[in-house]
Every structure is written in structure tokens, then in C-alpha cells.
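Lecture 7 notes: from sequence to structure.
We start with the chain below.
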Amino acid sequence: MKYLKVLYVQVLIGIVAGVVVGYLFPAFTPAAQVISETFINMIRMVIAPVIFFTIVSGIAGAGDLKKAGRIGGKAILYFEIVTTIALLIGMLMANLVKPGAGISHNNIQADKVAQYTTQAKAMNWGEFFSHIVPANVVDAFAKGDILQILFFSILFAIGLKRLGNKGTSLLASFEKINAVLFNILKIIMRLSPIGAFGGMAFTIGKFGFASLILLGKLMGTFYATGLLFIFVVLNLIARYYKFSLWRLLVYVKEEILIILGSSSSEAALPSIIKKLQDAGCDKEVVGLIIPTGYSFNLDGTTIYLSMSVLFLAQVFAVDLSIAQQLTIIGILLITSKGAAGVTGSGFIVLASTLTALKVIPLEGLGILIGVDRFMSEGRALINFIGNTVATIVIAKSEKAIDEDIYERVVVQGLPVITSL
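Predicted C-alpha cells for the same chain:
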């Protein structure tokens, strides 16, 4: 019975209960959606201030401005290399397995596709980078725009650091506020089993299992590719930097299960910031890498997008040449970067990509609507794991990690002694 008191066991029970309730009682779906959205909103409530105070206390408290710039540069380079590998793996697997071959494109949900294509046409990907600079910082915090908050936080940290000793009292206050926020987070995380239950009950109740039968090959290929990426690509990166991927995954198992239940990587953002700091990573590194990665290091989303484009090409018997597939890679390297900040991002970004290609019918998106929710967990999990690994990699490359603390907390699994 003592295991029932462990958080990740409770979350696992919540997920299983959600599947059962969603399948047996589909009428519970609206209530389940309210439960899931309420839990995610509670997490989002603390995301903006946690990012702000973590970055400010990290850079202004002990950071070197040149070091912060170097960390940012390394992060962007790492993100581009790894997401390109994810793209290539997704396209390679789609070409080998051909999950779209033999799928009928009849019964397309044209009415639902229309709303995504309309939003995609309204998107200007050239404005994505200019959007990083907030026109109104209060509005950025109100909307929870991670990139805009990150940009303002860095500038604020630089300004505070230039105050020298005059800024010490303000910095101390910020660190105390951050400690309060993490205490709030601990309270919220106790409710994560209920949130996971609601998220899974909603998914099963609304979409059922029927769509999985029709598009089971695509689902299987996507998840197999995700596992290949995690346990081959990320594992090789972890080995090169001399840390165990498996031990790291065990350390963040609660966050993995919460994401599985809620289908949102945002649900684990504040928690993973705290956990990586507890594991010995510098605040400065964690504060910069995690928020940036949530927009620029979307490995799972990248695999999904590349595979979906080729899947639809196979459904409509569009034979794409090598040159056209290379063009797809180039387009996705740009469009995938905006996925995190867009509601319904997977479909909107996919619609934007298909619009740019002009060789695959946009109506094909209707085929994916029923099964997309079942792949959203996979996208979120791969994104989350990719960003967690990236943070450890950058921290080790900068020698910004206390190896003794990491060994004790992550490798040996001993309790954390220090706290914010």
C-alpha cells in the first residue's frame, strides 16, 4: 500500500482509470475535458513567473553575460542539428514503411479541415522571429508567451546585473518569490493524478479507438520512430557526454506520466526546471535552455510533421522526388519552429507546409484529424525528453553542472538536500 503514496504510481492509476472511464462512459467526456483543462491552466498559471524569476536570478545572481550569450549560441546550434536529424529519421521511416499506402482518401472531414487551412493562410512565418520581441510585456505575461517572456527576462537580468550591489536586495526578493512559486507548484503537482485522469478520459471518450484501427500503421510507425530517436539518437548523445539516458528518464518519470495523461509538454515545464536545478544544473543554463527549447527544439513535432507530409503524399499517390523531399526538409526546418506558440499547432503548421509545397491536397488533413490526438502524447513526450537531454548536454559542455549532486540525485536516486 505504501506505493499508492508515490506520485508517479498515482498518476499511472489516473491514466488507466481515465482510459476505462472514457471507453465505458463517453458521456463523461465534457466533464473530463473541464478537469484536464483546469489542471493544465493551474500549471500555466505559474509558468510565466517561474521562467522570469529563474532566468533573472540565474543570470543576474551568478551569471556571466558572455557566458549567457555562449550558452544561447550553443543551444540554437544544438537544436538545429538535432531537429534536422529528427526530420531525416521521420522521412526515412515514412519512405521505408509507407504508412499511407492503401489508405482511402474518401470520407474526408472537409468542414474541420477548412478551419485549419484558414488559420494556416493567415500565418506569416516571417513574422515569427519579430514576434519574439513583445510590444507589451504585460500582455506577454498575460498570454504566457514563452519566447517573449524569455526575451524580456534576459534583458531584465542584464539591466539588474548592471546595477551591481544596488540590485542585491531586489535579487534576493526575486529568489524568495521563486521559492514561493515552486512551493505552489508542489501543491499543484499533487493534483496531477486527477489531471491525467481527466486528460485520458477526454481523449478516449471523444475520439475512441475506432480511428486507431484505420490508421494503426501510421500510429505504429510514428511511435516506433519516436522510440528510435530517443533510444538511438538521444542515447548516443548522452553516451558521448557521459551520462545515462535511462537514469535521467527514471529521474523525470513523474513528468513523463503527467505529459502522457495531459497530452501537453507545458504541464511539466515548471517542474522540470526545478528538477534539473535540483540535479545540479546551473539556474542560468536551465532558465535559458528549457524555455527556448519549447519553441526551437521540438523533436517530436518535427518527426510528426515530416512523417505526416509523406503519409499524405502516399495516400494521394503523389510520387515525391528526392529534390522535392529535400525541399520539404527545408520548409519544415522553418515552419516547425513556430509550432509551440500556435493553438492547434500540429495541423496549422502542417497546413502551412502543404500550402508551401502545392503538390499535396490540403483536404488530406481530414484523414489525420481522428488520430492526431493519439499522437499528441508522443509528440509532447519526445519534445520534453529532447529538451531535458539538451539541458544536461549544454550544462556539461559549459561545466555548469555539479557532478557530485547529479551523481547522488539522478544516478543513485537519493533525495534532494538543497532546495530553492
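Points to note: The first helix runs from residue 7 to 24. The two ends are 31 Å apart (CA to CA).
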